[in-house]
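User: Protein folding is very new to me. Would you mind checking the protein record under this note? It all follows right here:
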Amino acid sequence: RNASGKLERATLRRLATDAVIWHAQLAAMPPPIHAVVSDVHARQTTLQEMAATLLAEHPGELILCGASLGGKLAMEAVRQAPQRIKGLALLGTNARPETEAMRSLREAAIDMFAQGRVKTLLTVNLPNAFHPSRVQDSVLLQTYLDVVLRAGAEQLIRQNRALMERPDARLHLGEVKCPTLVLCGDSDRLTPPDCSREIAELIPGAQLVLIPECGHMLTMERPQEVNAALLAWLAVVAPAPPQIA
């Protein structure tokens, strides 16, 4: 618990994104949860530094909810301070280290970002982040594109490099003791469901939920389904206090 006595939940972001992608989830959070969207991923250069900063800036017991990069950050935070993490929700993420094939793709993307071709590359790859049924939703796609463009080339380069050097989180997941929810879109092309199944198999007692007809941006694509899963999990992790008649 933090200094005010509230149980705090730090919602961690995806690569180069901000609180916009968590809008529907933040609006649904019940008491006694004090929801915070951390920006440590925008200020540090490695996952280890991001996790250490998160833990330093949010003292006390934490419930961590992270998507994609945020999920990797949450897994690193629970490795660094397992006694402080009271719940873990991992959305559309991957515990494996970088592959050589993905490293080459990121290096090529970094070159384009450095050349000022951020929007060109993002626009081409935008459909890969969503379920095919949502790629014609121009408002949804533009909202996401605007979020990443606001982050800018420097953040994109720095965070991709952090992902390239990330540790193998699978090595410590068997030691996680807190209630864990693993959530993934059933059609996620960026972190396929097998990545989530692997995480759920490694963490004792973890719950796996696949969101139907959903891609990588599950908090924006299927907010109602994501909220239902998160609220059911939170009811176990941080139950509401009893009502006094």
User: Anything to note?
Assistant: The chain has nine helices and six strands. The radius of gyration is 17 Å. The chain has a mean pLDDT of 91. The beta strands are 7-12, 33-37, 62-67, 85-91, 180-185, 207-211.
